[in-house]
Amino acid sequence: MFGFVTANLKELNKQQQDRYGGVYCGICLRIREQSSQTARLGLSYDMAFLALLLMSLYEPEETSGPVRCGIHPFRKRDWFDNEYIRYAADMNVALAYYNFLDDWNDDGKRSAKLMASAFGKTLPEIEKKYPRQCKAIAHCIARLSQLEKENCPNPDEPAHQFGLLLGELLVYREDLWAPTLRQMGDALGRFIYLADAAVDYRKDLKKEKYNPYIAMGDREDWQKWDEYLVLAMGRCTANFEKLPLVQDKDILDNILYSGVWTNFRRFGAKAREEK
Length: 275
Prior knowledge:
By secondary structure, the chain is mostly helical. 68% of the residues lie in helices and 4% in strands. It is built from twelve helices and two strands; from the N terminus they run ααββαααααααααα. It has a two-stranded antiparallel ribbon with strand order 1-2. It is globular.
């Protein structure tokens, strides 16, 4: 369901691209060290947004350096490390685990069961460190699964669940900024869920799978869906602008004001082209 909250690289300069890539590489390395090599298969650029947002808000001390890895064996790449990159790595693993577990429970995919087993090895440790966040992930994904089985005709209900999930992930600690981060995460989660539903509309219709737009009786209507997304992202950015962000604000602006829309248009165009 993720994949929308990434940068529009064409609008980033070289320094910004290197910074963005370095955060991504830092999360990748931390997943390997904190979980396993296999867990890196679930890595998403969306987690780089989570790390950058918290890094910009709290401005922690960080370390950095060049590294060569199996994915990029020929050229060393810069990486960054701090507590929020480690947090993003743990949240990436927890999200992937519960997503695979849900696929196994809903569809009986043996591959999903195997991946859930691989990702779940370090889950008890992650749950111990971040009980609130992991509880929210488990509860919201379970509730989403229930709504899908009920063929819920109101898209706001499943979108709300994903909003609750992302809101808890954006809140690293309960402090002055927690309410704003929750509201921002709630709106961003709704955007992601509804954007994903739009992109998957034709595929879900063909496979007779749950899609909130199909359940509510909607025909394919990208203009209408676009209006839903504009409202959700408007709420997200309104809360985003309340945060006192300076460090990496240019990259975060790129993601929320350009990247999410570039990705949605690209995924949407690809979905419409597929027969």
